[in-house]
Amino acid sequence: MINSIQKNKIGLSVLALISLATFLLVLSLAQQNQLTTRPDDVPLRKEPNRTSKKIVSLKSDTKLTVLKRQNGWWYVRDSKDDTKGWVASWVANNTFLKKPTALSEATIVLDPGHGGSDTGALSYNNKYYEKTYTLKTALATRKELEKTGARVFMTRTTDVVVPLLYIPRQAEKYQADAQISFHFDASGTHNSASGISQYYYNSNSLTLVKSLSSSLNNLPLENRGYDSTPYLVIKDVSRPAVLLELGFIDSDKDLSYIKSSTYQEKVAKDIRSGLMNYIQSN
Known about the structure:
Its EC number is 3.5.1.28. GO terms for molecular function: N-acetylmuramoyl-L-alanine amidase activity. This is N-acetylmuramoyl-L-alanine amidase (AmiC). InterPro entries: MurNAc-LAA_cat, N-acetylmuramoyl_amidase_3, SH3-like_bac-type. The protein is an alpha/beta fold. It folds into three domains: 1-32; 35-92, SH3 Domains (SH3 type barrels, Roll); 107-281, Zn-dependent exopeptidases (Aminopeptidase), CATH 3.40.630.40. 36% of the residues lie in helices and 24% in strands. The chain has a six-stranded mixed sheet, with helices on both faces. It has a four-stranded antiparallel sheet with strand order 1-4-5-6. Helix 3 packs across helix 8. The N and C termini lie far apart (80 Å). The model is unreliable at 14-31 (pLDDT under 50).
């Protein structure tokens, strides 16, 4: 009799644990499908892209139910009035943004050229590598763009080799609004050239390169302008893509800027400005 009671108690305990685990699992799954907007005026759109028609601007603390997900965009239902539409999840979930900017719903891919065993161009004394400063400048740019709420991806964040054919894949996968590759030039002769240049290839990148070229006129180095060149990273991609040459690393004058965090931050701010103008006009 005692053994029977003990067995029943054990059985009830196991059943209670299973019931509790099931309840917690259901609760967890339900919470995963709930979203509360953080910034004010989050756009609710008809389709999952920033150029789609805006249905309404959602106020901060709007309760939403997530119905499906697509490439970072979430199809949601407003729990209050049953309105349905798409929000950029990285905007709706942003914890520091008070209101979305023109860039907030944009997706930007930053590509710091070279890396790892591929040093890129070298300074005249071979002490400074292009790969080092493309990464520093791209990281500064990511920091600046993230202040606007934009979704930013990087092809590398450490000193590693990235195969050239891989670089356009992120832009294609996430349907990026812009892909920007960072490079530094070399003339092959010490102090024989100076300045910055911008390159594009596909016609859908012309407006982007013009906007960035205009904003980069603020840099202390001469802007040599933009041109169309079939570089692989900007040629084999359907998304708008540009390649920036931000100074000659074998020029003592340019190198003094290239190594400077002040110059890197200035580049970042100018790129943000150029992208802001580009997004607002497109």
